[in-house]
Structure formats: C-alpha cells, structure tokens
Amino acid sequence: MAWNGGVRYFDTAPHYGLGLSERRLGAALRDRPRDEYVISSKVGRLLVPTPERAHELDVAEHFLVPAAFERRWDFSRDGILRSVEGSLERLGLDTIDILYLHDPDQHWDAASTTGVDALIELREQGVTRAIGVGMNRSAMLTDFVRQCDIDVVMLAGRYTLVDRSALDDLLPAAEERGVGVVAAAVYNSGLLARAEVPDDAIYEYRDAPADLVRRARELAAICERHGVTLPDAAVQFPLRHPAVVSAVLGARDAAEAASGVERYARPIPEALWDEL
C-alpha cells in the first residue's frame, strides 16, 4: 500500500521487534528495484542472543515478539560493525542507504567519537551513503550537527504542531550546516493522530496532560474551519521548514499506510498555516 502510494523511503532498526521489522521490510522490498527506494536502519542497540528466554515475550520494550535476544548498548567500532552486519543479513541487502546512531541519550562520549567514526568508515567503504543520529533530544542532535561529520538527523517529536522546540536549536544549525532533518513522531505518540482529540489521548507514550489535550483540540478546530483535519496538518507541518527533508509515519496496517499518503497529499490552504 505504501509503495503504491508513492512512498520510497523506509525506516527500520534492530530495536524494533528484535530484528523482526528489518526482516519484514527486507522481505517486502526484495522484488523491488534497489535503486528505486531509500532504506535507513540504526546502530547502538546490539542484539545479543538469549535462547533461554525465547519462550517469553519482549513486553518490557512493548514488542509482542519472542524475547530470543536482548538489546545491549554498544557504540564501539566493533559493536557498530557487528550491528550493521546483522542488519544487512536480516534485510537481505548489501548496502543500507542511511545509518543512524539510535537514541544515544546517555552515551554522548562513545557515540560522538567511536560511533560516528565507525559510521564514517562505513560511508567511505560504500556500505552506506549517509550517516546521522536519531533521537528526540533536539539540543543533543544540535551538538552532533555542530561537532560531527554527519549528513542527516532523525528528530522525533520536537518539531510538531504542539512542540516546536527544535526551532530554537536544531533546525537553524541543520540549515546552516546543510544537514537534512527527517521529522519523526509527527503525531506526538497519538495526540495529533485523530481529527477529534479524545480524552484519553496519548502524548510521549503516556496519557496526555489536560493542557495539551485542550491545545490539540484548539488546533483541530482551526483545521476544521479550513476544511482539513488535525492529522493532515500534523503530517505536512514539519515539511514546510527548509531543513526538513522527509517525515516518517508509523503504520500498523495497510489502512494506516494509505491514510498517511492521503494526509500528505491533502491540499491545505495557506490561510490555515497563517492562522496556526
């Protein structure tokens, strides 16, 4: 459904389903021309086999898959090379277009040195075409942009209709340095995913605070006056900034993939953006 709708950029990671996301994505793209799509994956969480726990589920990390592996933080050169080797095998590919350091929140020292250096090495070898960092902390991403030789960052939830904090640091720095920004979590974990914001809306994977629910409803009312929905505006909003090169939308099934494409294509009057 996503492919038929024109989507050609697909993001995954070993973390997602303990490798299941990579295996499924690789199978889905296997018969597609390799030069027609861009794929990104991530490093930093090395999958270590735990066969003794294969009868359990990975519920602690919110994935309903057998806990046959555990995630081990590793931003060393060896850890990153082993992680990429595993990703290539699961994807069934020889190269991965973009490699991100994944959520290095507590690992700046290693990620900004051995981590970035290992990715630069892989870029020079042609294993990847672009390298970067993915996380939800715009200030730390700004440090990576200013201090490291990276090409792109994936920013989760910090440049959306309700959280524009990246305007204060990351987006100006990325524009200045020519680093692309991929906007993820544009719905802020669900708060902006529906035309009508429910009382039990989720924000940052938790129940949304009442003031944010009120704000989202105010935004939804503005959108409705202009003949579009809140999710339409949520998808298209970050793409209006010159530093933002793409947006990543999660989809749990074909219907959600189709709705994401429709929201991206929905005509939105300039007057709505002015009012927002």
UniProtKB/TrEMBL annotation:
Cross-referenced InterPro entries: AKR (IPR020471), FDH-like (IPR044477), NAD(P)_OxRdtase_dom_sf (IPR036812), NADP_OxRdtase_dom (IPR023210)
Q: Which residues form the NADP-dependent oxidoreductase domain?
A: 4-270
- Report which residue ranges the record marks as coiled coil: none
Which parts of the chain span the membrane according to its record? none
Q: What is the lineage of its organism?
A: Bacteria, Bacillati, Actinomycetota, Actinomycetes, Micrococcales
Instruction: Specify the protein name.
Output: Oxidoreductase
Which SUPFAM superfamilies does the record cross-reference, listed alphabetically? NAD(P)-linked oxidoreductase
Q: Which Gene Ontology molecular-function terms are recorded?
A: oxidoreductase activity
Q: Name one Pfam family in it.
A: Aldo_ket_red
Report which superkingdom the organism of origin falls in. Bacteria
List cellular component terms (GO).
cytosol
